[in-house]
Amino acid sequence: FFGNVLRDVMLEDIIPLFEDCGSIWSLRLVMDPLSTLSRGFGYVNFTTMEAVAVSIDLLNGLILKETGAMQVNANVPNCLYIGNIPKSKDKDDIKTEFSIVSGGILNVISAETKLIWGFCLVEYDSIQSAAFAKQQLNNGTIKVFGSDIIVDWADPNEAKKHKIIKVLHVGIISKRSSMERIKELFGEHGPIQLVEKFADYAFVHCENRDDAAKAVEDLNDRTVD
After folding, report:
1. Burial, 127: exposed, middle or buried (Cβ in 10 Å; 0-12, 13-18, 19+)?
2. CA angle, residues 152, 155, 158, in degrees to nearest 5
3. Sheet of 38-46: strands edge to edge?
4. Which part of the chain has CATH 3.30.70.330?
5. What CATH homologous superfamily does 167-219 map to?
6. Is this entry keyworded RNA-binding (predicted)?
7. Model confidence over 44-57: pLDDT tens digits?
8. Residue 77 CB coordination number (10 Å)
C-alpha cells in the first residue's frame, strides 16, 4: 500500500519509484470515478517479498511533489467504502444484505449502530472476497436496499479513522459549492481539519466526534449553495 500522495500524481510519477525497488507484478493507483484525479493512494504487487521490504525501506517517508511524507507499507486491500446507504439501516442489515452478494464479510465498520452518516466500510477476509464483492456491486445490475450505492476501495488509514469516526460524507452537492463554503458551513459546529471535494460529494474531517455528530444532526438534508 502507498498513500499520502497528491491527487494530481499519476502512474508515470509512481511507477519509476517502485521499479527501482524490484520486479513489479501489478500497480494500481486508485482513481476518483467522478474526476480525472487519483484518490491519493494505491497498491503495488511485487514478485518477491524482498522487493516489498526494499520499497518500504526506500520510499516510506519520501517527499513526493511537496505532498509531505509518502506512506508505504505492507498491506492487503480487503476493505470497501460503501456510500449512499439508507440511514435507517444498521450494521446487521448491511451484513445481511451484502452477504447475499458475496461471502467473506468480517466486519461492518461504522461509529454508530444506525448508519446516520449514510456510509460505512465493509471489511472482508481477503482481497479476493473484497474484489469479487466490488465487481458484483459495480456491474450495474445489483441494487442494495433499492439504492444505487457508491462502492470503492477504502484507504486502510480511513478504516482506522472511521472506527472513531470524525469524517463526514457529504453527498449530492452542487459542483459550484467551493471547499471554502463547505468548510464555513461545517465550521459552525466546530473546528474542521480538512475538506476533500470531488465532483458532487465531499468528505469533511472534523476535529472531534461530538462536532461531527452535531453537524450531521443540523445539516442533514440541508441545501448547500
Report:
1. middle
2. 115
3. 24-31, 38-46, 2-3, 71-72
4. 2-72, 79-159, 167-219
5. RRM (RNA recognition motif) domain (3.30.70.330)
6. yes
7. 888 776 788 788 88
8. 21
What gap in Å lies between CA 49 and CA 39, rounded to an integer?
Answer: 26
Instruction: Give burial (CB, 10 Å; 0-12/13-18/19+) of 138.
Output: middle
Q: Which three cell numbers stand for residue 12?
A: 508515470
DSSP states along 32-82: -TTSSSEEEEEEEEESSHHHHHHHHHHHTT-B-TTSSB-EE------EEEE
Is residue 182 a contact partner of residue 222, using CB atoms and an 8 Å limit? Answer: no
Give the CATH class of 79-159: alpha beta
pLDDT in tens, 90-130: 888 888 999 988 888 988 877 555 555 677 888 888 878 88
Half-sphere exposure of 47 (CA within 13 A, CB side): 5
**pLDDT for 128-169, tens place per residue?**
888 888 888 888 778 888 888 888 877 665 555 554 456 677
Query: Can you tell me which residue has the cell 445539516?
Result: 219
Centre a 10 Å sphere on the Cβ of residue 163 and count the other Cβ atoms it contains.
12
Give residues with Cβ within 8 angstroms of 160, minimum separation 6.
none
Cell of 199: 465532483
